[in-house]
Amino acid sequence: MTVLLIDSLVHPARVSRHATASRRLRLEVPSLRGDPWFARRLERRVGALPGIVEVRADPRSGRMLLRYDEGAPLLAGLREEPEPPPTRDDLRPTEAQGRRAWHSMSTDDALAALGTSREGLSGRDAQSRLRRFGLNAAESAELRSRLSILGEQVANVPMALLLGSAGLSALLKEALEATAILAVVGLNAAIGYRIERKNEDILSSWRELEAGKVDVVRDGSLVSIAALELVPGDVLVCGAGDTVPADARVIESRRLSCDESALTGESEARPKADAPVDPDAPLAERGSMVFAGTTVVTGRARAVVVATGTATQVARVRALVEEEEAPRPPLTRRLESLANRLSVASMGASALSAAAGIVRGHGAVRVVRDAVALGVAAIPEGLPLVATAALVRSMQRLQEHGMIVRRLAAAEALGTVTVICADKTGTLTRNEMRLERLEVPGGSVDPRTVRADPDRVLEDPTTLLLAAGVLNSEVELVPRRGRAPGLAGSSTERALVEAGRRAGLDPERLFREFPRLRLWERREDVLYVMSHHEGPTGRLALVKGAPGQVLDLCDIDPQERARLEAQNSALAGEGLRVLAFAWKRLDDGGGTEPTDGFGFLGFAGLRDPLREGAAETIADARDAGIRTVILTGDQPRTAEAIARELGVGGGTLLAKDMEELDPAELQRRLDRTAVLARVTPEDKLEVVRLLQRRGQIVAMAGDGINDAPALKVADVGIAVGANATDLARQVSDLVMSGEDLRSILVAVGEGRIVQDDIRRSLRFLGATNLSEMALVVGASIAGAPSPLSALHLLWINLLTDTLPALALALEPGDPEVLDRKPARPDEPLVGGPELRRLLRDGGILAAAGAAAMIVGGRPLVFAALPAAQLGYAVACRAPRHERGARSSAEGLEARAEADLRFAGMVGGAIGLHLVAMTVPVARRFLGLPRPSPLMLGSFAAGSLLPWILRGAPSVEVIVRHGTAGRRSLPAPSSPA
Amino acid sequence: MKFHWQSFLLGYGAGAGTVMFAKHLRPLLLEVATAGYRFVDALAARAAMKQEDLEDLFAEARAKARGHRGTASTQTH
Question: What's the complex ipTM?
Fold first, then answer.
């Protein structure tokens, strides 16, 4: 690679073309692009070099031409072959760094490989590396740009057809029509854009910009630098409470442990040390490494940075997210399919009409005009608006339950969900240990209500046990930027200290009265922590840890031991993490670690509690026909205990089992699996994909970085909780701002209500548009003039496709919507009996229009047809029992509100149409005569037609049963 | 002059609409303008590169035709 050194700054360059025959060298200099001042400087500096004849730097192309003399010394050594394009490693040297097995190297080998030492880098070296590797910043997933949101509103077939119709109208010099069509397109686009943009703004306000400082060793001294300026080779110093800013190899540590739950899903803090580990160790077991984005829980360490920015493990997960494409929601797919079919039908009808027109010798202008009219008639212009309105209302109701909807269509997609994949730690559980049980020799004690006696610590067994939990821990109070100081330490010890505080113990007072002399930590074969303290009456030892080993230290008889072991088993069987406590007075001054003579104090049972509503959510989901699968990076036993507590039935599968099974067997096992343990982000992604291939509609609920790829690929991604990571929120379709998981089922119910409402609106829109198409095509085939002009059709469509269709889309839902199974993902929006009803009703409306045409021509059609269509909206309403609960006050209120809204919207549409028929300005605009009694009468008659439709038999019954023995007919309004 | 209320309403509506929606329209227009500039710059860069390639081609041909020493160059893509 060639570099240019100008004003002590390095500018990479690449030989683009070099011709020795003509002595011309063309260099590509990326930093030259768009910088005319740098171009002038380059020309001056390089032009002054010996042997250079001419230099021309062009800031537009970012390339520089050098013409040189024969034997120019600078270029003598330059080869003729141009340099190959930069490889990935050249462009991103840090990624190559990140891939090495640092965890299995010794500390000296790692330091040598990085060209650094325990004294850290020199300032100069650090600057040079910063220029080479770039800033320590992972590229975050970008929010959707405004332009892309706007583009999505218009980049679909119906909009394209409408725009085409507007173009054709403009060509025919029908400015008014063209403008009206464009106004409709603009209105739809503006509404959809506004809604989605508002949600993006809410989400972007949650992003925290972390530009913190970190401590590193440089030139042998401890300095504080911006985390962005970290480079590979820097020696990082971190302590309890710090967020690790880059991937680093531990070179020195003291009681170090890290919370890696956001990256690996492990709920317990991982102990870290400088000893190398197996090269094949998975991420969760690399005890010699600390990773960017994780948190130091206890201890302190020095670690040499091995990867920054895009080379870190966190960035790898982000890259996985960016490689994947979010699937299009089911509603979008089905609406697109419907729109495509309508477009084909419209084009077919237009072709038919054009052919008929040509056969009858109509002029080109008339043929094109009729085609435009058909295009406008066929496309339900209000459909995007209606779908958007239903989704928006659903979105607003979800916001009341603490759910922010990022992608509008996801609100409906929830209605078709068949499987919920849920991360365990932080999603189903709170990811914070709590003390749930205390078993002392006197019996069971409720930690929530127990009161300790700070003045009788050694005399009261319960107080002594709680005090031991505080004194024996390594929890410390650490300051946090912009927040109140918090406790840093393992989640278990934090829970014990919190429990002691709640019971009335003051940790500071305890440490004053019982200052710690020494602490022995857990080791590989010693599973307890022992501490020695100076007390008011002499020295004492406190111990807490694994029950078996703590009981070995105690002086108890075999019977008592057996009883205590049984008690321990019972607690463990409830899924609790059990710690045993013991103590003794020290006679020998406390220099050594005693191994007997302890008095047993009791057991503490801790648990990472379930989130509020978790168990109810799983049960309700089961009743609604939705299966739940728990995905976790944690151990299988812990996950199974949670599954039992939640009532999730099914088998357990480990991540390594997934690799060993063949695809067909894996698919079959997945159908019976409730828990997948020890899974990585890639495994979660694969599980979601496998379920989708089985035809399932998958919702993924998660909160961590390790959930992000699965959240993006799932049909509905839900970021759970206020502490969800930024990345999880950015890629999800819904973001829970609250902590209650029951809002997920509320969202599923809302999704089903949206589906029902959209189906009802579609039936209405389909029948009304079909009636218009049938009229126009029929007239064309019959050789009659078109009963309605394109402007009339546009007006009628706007009238009927907006207010009444909107009213149908905003109906309250069936309160028992979750008692039925989810709709099949491939179920069409309008199919089977619904489609037959739609065709029948459309035919009847068209017949009414045709009759009006025969009796009174265009003005009568304009009066009668919309009236009939508006009245038809009444026939499409949901049955009364579906419009809110039958007897509850809330249900009655919802029903009354729906009735009022419907009456208002349809009444409003009727009023607008009357205005169009009677007000002179509007009549002139639409080309209508003064309204006659016949027109007004046909308007009234048209309104009554739907009441007749309500009593009409369904096509199915007539065909099957003939005239005798007809069964009673349902109201023609229930969706499939 | 007869007061044409339709024109007045149209003008007033356009003005009021601009004021009301300016806050929301500005970021969108900024993105559109940014995309436009990027497109124009990319076009200009492309044109400049093609021009340079042509210039190099003619210079090389001239040098070969007039018998300058040296071998032909190899072009990158």
Answer: 0.72
C-alpha distance from A22 to closest chain B C-alpha (Å):
5
Annotation marks residue A423 as catalytic: yes
The verdict on a CB contact (< 8 Å) between A17 and B73 is yes
Parallel, antiparallel, or unpaired: how do β-strands A716-719 and A734-736 relate? parallel
Q: Which residues of A touch B44 (CB under 8 A)?
A: 60
CA A62 to chain B, closest CA, distance in angstroms equals: 8
Helix-, strand-, coil-residue percentages of chain A, each rounded to 5: 50, 20, 30
Count of residues in chain A: 976
Q: Is B68 on the interface with A (CB under 8 A)?
A: yes
Instruction: Identify which of B31, B45, B68 has the shortest CB distance to residue A145.
Output: B31
Q: Residue A922 corresponds to which amino acid?
A: A
Write the pLDDT tens digit of every residue in A800-847.
777 788 788 787 776 677 777 776 666 666 777 778 888 888 888 898
pLDDT greater than 50 at residue A570: yes
User: Between B27, B56, B77, which is nearest A26 by CB?
Assistant: B56
The residues pairing with A12 across neighbouring beta strands, listed in sequence order, are A3
The C-alpha atoms of residue A946 and residue A844 are separated, in whole angstroms, by 10
Tell me the pLDDT band of A3, cut-offs 50, 70 and 90. low
Please name every residue paired with A544 in a beta bridge, in sequence order, or none if there are none: A529, A581
Residues whose CB falls within 8 Å of the CB of residue A177, separated by 6 or more in sequence, listed in order? A166, A169, A372, A790, A791, A794
Identify the residue with better confidence: A484 or A927. Answer: A927
Of B24, B31, B60, the CB nearest to A22: B60
Nearest to B56 among A24, A61, A83 (CB): A24
Which residue is closest to A56 within chain B, CA to CA? B52
Shortest distance between the Cα of A19 and any Cα of chain B, in A, equals 5
Distance CA A667, CA A691 (A): 8
Which residue is associated with the tokens 């113990």? A505
Q: What is the DSSP string of A504-568?
A: T--HHHHHHHS-EEEEE---SS--EEEEEEEETTEEEEEEEE-HHHHHHHB---HHHHHHHHHHH
Chain A residues in contact with B47 by the CB 8 A cut-off are 60
For residue A808, CA distances in Å to A575, A685, A758, A867 come to: 50, 38, 8, 17
Residue-averaged pLDDT of chain A: 79
Q: What is the pTM of this model?
A: 0.63
CA distance to partner chain B, nearest, from residue A179 (Å)? 14
Burial of A819 (0-12, 13-18, 19+ CB in 10 A): exposed
User: Residue A592 carries which DSSP code?
Assistant: S
Rounded to whole angstroms, the Cα distance separating A874 from A595 reads: 84
Residues of A in contact with B74 (CB under 8 A): 80-82
pLDDT in the model for residue A57: 94
Token pair 């600057």: residue:
A127
Contacts of B31 in chain A (CB under 8 A): 145-147
Catalytic choice (A259, A274, A423, A733):
A423
Between strands A528-535 and A52-58, the pairing is unpaired
A524-567, pLDDT tens digit by residue? 678 888 999 998 888 999 999 988 899 999 999 999 999 999 99
